[in-house]
Amino acid sequence: MCGIVGYVGARSVVDVVIDGLRRLEYRGYDSAGVALVFNPDGADSYLEVDKKAGKLANLEAVLAEQDRSLEAACGIGHTRWATHGVPSDRNAHPHLSADGRVAIIHNGIIENFGQLRAELEATGVEFLSDTDTEVAAHLLGREYAVDGDLTEAMTRVCTRLEGAFTLLAVAADDPDTVVGARRNSPLVVGLGEGEYFLASDVAAFIAYTTEAIELGQDQIVTISRADGITVRGFDGEPSEGKPFSVDWDIAAAEKGGYDTFMAKEIHEQPQAVADTLRGRIDEAGQIVLDEVRMSDQDFRDIDKVFIVACGTSYHAGLVTKYAIEHWTRIPCEVELASEFRYRDPVLDRSTLVVVISQSGETMDTLMALRHAKDQKARVLAISNTVGSTIPRESDAVLYTRAGIEVAVASTKAFLTQLAACYLVGLHLAQVRGIKYADEVSAILDELVAAPGKIAKVIEHLEPVREMARNSAGKDRVLFIGRHVGYPVALEGALKLKELAYLHAEGFAAGELKHGPISLIEEGTPVVAIVPSPRGRSLLHDKIISNIQEVKARGAKVIAICEEGDAITASHADFVIETPATPTLLAPLLTTVPLQEFAIELATAMGRDIDQPRNLAKSVTVE
Ligand code: F6R
Fold it and tell me: Where in the cell is it found (predicted)?
């Protein structure tokens, strides 16, 4: 969380930095700030800092009132997701050193800040904020005063910091230098013609260049128009980053005619899932995961699978458990990443740990993956972000290719994670010869048909919108499901909580009678995810009973069911039909109406769809 941008080059620095922050606002929007270094002809260079609590627009309003006749020579900008200290002007970044000569911005948490703060205060330093970041500002100012070299100063400071941090800094008397450092937190470099960018994410500079360098762990980078880019380690030794080209463009980062990014991303799902599958099933019906860097023998050696993830990605993991166990007969556990390492799970060389992370930067998931690797388990990442930390540190990776997801609430990332997980499950089944080839091939045909069916669901969302608007005055909405419908219920509830700030809860339908049914009163909306009446008809019958139970207590039931399911239609108050598909693949379809339900209900309540309160898209703290 927190988005950071730095720039040196001939363009308007303030415009580049603000434009970058706008594209990174999904990472946090509690406050924003910039530090610009000006270098007027014939006068000493100087530093100006502007920062404001609230969304970026508040900062823009401040900047709009200023004299823009002189362009800055370089600058840095920050959009904050508060960790230490409330969102306020004084806690907003950048923070200045005591002598005002250097300004710094930060993403992450400096874990030993308490000790460093005490040490600095003992020497008379006065703190102006409650942030952990300010210790880095004072330390940097002190080190910069030693030799006036910002890179050297940053190197010395980094050796004193513990925790997770990306730092960017500028100095008042060095108008051609921005220095960055990273540990456990993302930082990429953008390479233009005589101009350089530093940012948390390529989205910040994609309007200007698609050429980038990914920095490694514990690296420091200096960008300068005169000297280009230099990279070194925290130990001061010269080093280098890894060049890559970004394969999407600015259009992907725009709303493209939709009211919100989330609406756009919901509509992109058929294409996104098709992209996940593209080239990964050959003409003979074999799943080809060559890029994953795991041999067939590696897959054969696995005797247990753990799936570890957070939030929506965790829900994708829950669905996958049903698929993997059914298709491969390998035991599969799903764990919340934030809990995983603390309960000392039993892992060894024959355990496959699948970490799922859209951003590839989620700290809880990263720590879980490191724990798994320490225990010698093999780690496969499913991620949407090429070159991010989680895929980089994993033994193997399968990218979901969803394209950039800007809305904080995840939609297309979830569906593409499901598609990628299905591929892994079916590949395991193929290489281990557990399932008959024709069975796997029948499921693969259905998987390939899924994008078309998702498109069909999207075309018929108007009744969902109407139901959502009808539910707008309610104080709670419950979601129930069985089997893979249970994680879908959890996901539907999470979307509604995030977007509408409403009490929404997902339950395994059979659990209701063990307690939660007491939440139901006259008119409570209950969304039921109903499995196909074909196939596992037992499941279908059971959920019909659950629908009857809640209706008997006054609930208004909205059922998501397969087209032509007359039994459900005769019991539910409202019905949303989805095309027929095998039960295990149904979440690819049944999730979509729930996404739309959340967006519409939240819109009716006047909520901010793309940037719900208190959230950030990339959660880089534990
Ligand atoms: C919910 C949502 C979050 C993320 C979670 C994990 O809509 O987006 O719950 O799924 O923070 O993020 P990643 O997948 O980036 O690790």
Answer: Cytoplasm
